[in-house]
Amino acid sequence: MVDTTRAWLAVIFAGGLYAVASGVLAAVLLGALRRKLLGPGDPAAESKPPSRVRRRLAAGVLALAGLQTLCVLWAFFVEPFWPQVDRLRIETLKLAPNTRPVRLVLVADTHCDPRARTERRVPDLVRGLKPDVIVFAGDAVNSTDGLTTFKTLMTRLAEIAPTWSVRGNWEAWWFKSLDLYSGTGVRDLGGKAVRVAAGESEVWICGGVFGEEGERAAALKGVPAGRFSIFVHHYPEVGADVLRAGGADLALGGDTHGGQVRLPLVGPLVRISRSGEYFDIGAQRVGDGILYVNRGLGMEGGRAPRVRFMCRPEITLIEIAPAGTVSR
C-alpha cells in the first residue's frame, strides 16, 4: 500500500516545478509578443538584445517545461499500460540432476479498476512463458467496481496453468466479504502446502495466512523433508522472517509496488515498511534463502494518483532448476 499523502506531495512538488517553468515560459512568450506588436521604432521597443545568459536560461526553461510535460504524460498514459517480464533463475540441489526446471509465474497487486490497463495484455504474455504454475500475491481490486476486470484476468490466467492466490491487505481490511475467485478456477493458497510437478521435478508452494501471526508459516509443516519450498505472503517482511527461520528456500511477496515512482539516483519516492525494515524490488538474499518482491501490475487506489514512472508493471518468471543445469 502506498502512502497517499507522500504520493500526492511528490505530485504537487513536480506540479510546482512545472508551474514555475510554465510561468517563466509564458513571460518569455508575452515579452516576445509585446515587442512584435509594438514594432520597430517605438520607444518602448528600443532595448538591448538579450544576453547570451538570458537566451540560454530561456532555452533551459523551455527544455525543462517540455521534459516535465513528457514525464507527466508518460507516467499517466504510457507506463501503467506497459507490463514488463522479469526473470529469475534459481539452481538447487533439491531437484534431481538432469530434470527440467519448474517454471513459476508471479503476479501481484493488480489493484483493478473498472477500466482495464495491463489486464488485457498480461494473459498473452504469461502464456508465452509456458508456466507450470501461476501465483498471485494479493491486493486484487481498488473498489468493488473493479471486480469484473479482476475476475476476467484471473479466469484467463487459470486457463493457462494451475493458479493459486493469497490475500493482501486490501482484501483483509476492506473486501473481506467480496467474492473474488468463484468461477475463475483460481484457488486460495492461504494455510496450504501444494505440490507442483514438472516432469520428474517437484517443488512445494506454501501460502501464509494474512494477519494471523501463528498461522503464517503453518503450511510449511506440510512440506516433505528435503523438498524445495516456496513461501508466499503479500508482505515481503513476513517472507523474510520465514527465510531467516530456515522455513523455506524462496519467499515471494508484493505490497510495495516498487514505489510506483522511481527517480534516478533517488530510487522510490515512497518506501513502504511494515516492520521498520524495507525490502526493495527484485531478488534479495535473506538468511539462506532468496526473497523476491514483485512490483505489481496495478496502482494504489483511493485518493492516490494513478501514475507509474521508471517502475513498469511486472510479471515475474522464476525458474527453479537442478544445480548445474544449462539455461536455455
Sketch the topology as an H/E string, one letter per element. HHEEHEHEHEEEEHEEEEEE
Q: Summarize the amount of helix as a percent range.
A: 25-40%
Quick one: how many beta strands?
Answer: 14
Which regions contain 5 or more consecutive residues with pLDDT less than 50?
none
Topology of this structure?
Elements: H1 4-38, H2 52-77, E1 84-92, E2 102-107, H3 122-129, E3 133-136, H4 147-158, E4 163-165, H5 169-173, E5 187-188, E6 193-198, E7 201-207, E8 228-232, H6 236-244, E9 250-253, E10 262-263, E11 267-268, E12 282-286, E13 289-293, E14 314-322
Parallel strand pairs: 1-14, 2-3, 3-4, 4-5, 7-8, 8-9, 9-13
Antiparallel strand pairs: 2-14, 6-7, 10-11, 12-13
Helix pairs in contact: 1-2
